[in-house]
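Each field is set out underneath.
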Amino acid sequence: MSSQEDQFQQAAPAPAASSADDGMTWWYKWLCRIAGVIGGVSCALAGLWNCVTINPMNIAAGVWMMLNAFILFLCEAPFCCQFIEFANAVSARADKLRPWQKAVFYCGMAVFPVILSLTLTTLLGNAIAFATGVLYGLSALGKKGDAISYARIQQQQKQADEEKLTGTLEGQAL
């Protein structure tokens, strides 16, 4: 490669991070999507059950849970919302988010109703939605390193520590 090509590649803007470039395997993407759909179903059912009460905080938590279910369906399974005009646009925008952003969004969405009304229904209803956020968070951490790379790093750190120790001992001997 010539130096002009190197300069051109350095000056060229980096391509935007796409969902295909986030390091997730196809089966893990489907696992996250299926968990999101199941989380949406559990939020919707538990939210509806929460609304059948006279306590206003339970009703607020139930409405929020049904809103969470709608958002989960909209982001993870837009075919469930095919009669909503903006469903595909929202899903495409959600697919452009990085996994850690989805993790924060889904976990935050799932925690809010529990803060409003700490009941068994809100805990169980939001557990799968929270687990979806956890799955996206784990994918943001990346793949686990192999044993050879880890051993090489440990060896380098050990050599650096030994060099520091011998340098200190030599300094004391003088």
Q: What stands out?
A: The chain has seven helices and no strands. The mean pLDDT is 81. The helical segments are 3-11, 26-51, 56-76, 87-95, 99-116, 120-141, 147-173. Residues 165 and 171 are 10 Å apart (CA to CA).
